[in-house]
Write a structure and sequence with these properties.
With 89 residues, the chain is of the alpha+beta class. It has two helices and seven strands; from the N terminus they run βββββββαα. The two termini are 27 Å apart.
Length: 89
């Protein structure tokens, strides 16, 4: 992963090959996965593909990387622990 900060102070990530999980103080989750072309996002229980300027709701959750990660970590609770501090559990 390459990390840069542009002149406006924005963090720019390039060549990100692992999902990124953002969590608000209220526990809302957003997972961003960079694909070879476009992105997959998971917001709460909604899945979307972003590709070639279009946002497409995912019809097949089973085909998404998010589903594959959920299978890897076993349960939604284990999946939700990804990236949490020990103090947040």
């Amino acid at each position: 992963m390459k990390v840069e900060v542009n002149e406006d102070g924005m963090i720019v990530l390039k060549e990100v090959f692992n999902p990124i999980k953002l969590v608000t103080l209220r526990g809302e989750r957003l997972i961003i996965t960079m694909r070879d072309s476009g992105f997959e996002i998971f917001y709460e229980d909604d899945f979307y593909e972003l590709k070639k300027g279009k946002v497409i709701p995912r019809a097949k959750y089973e085909d998404s990387l998010s589903h594959k990660l959920l299978k890897r970590y076993g349960t939604r609770e284990e999946f939700n622990k990804i990236g949490k501090d020990k103090n947040q559990e």
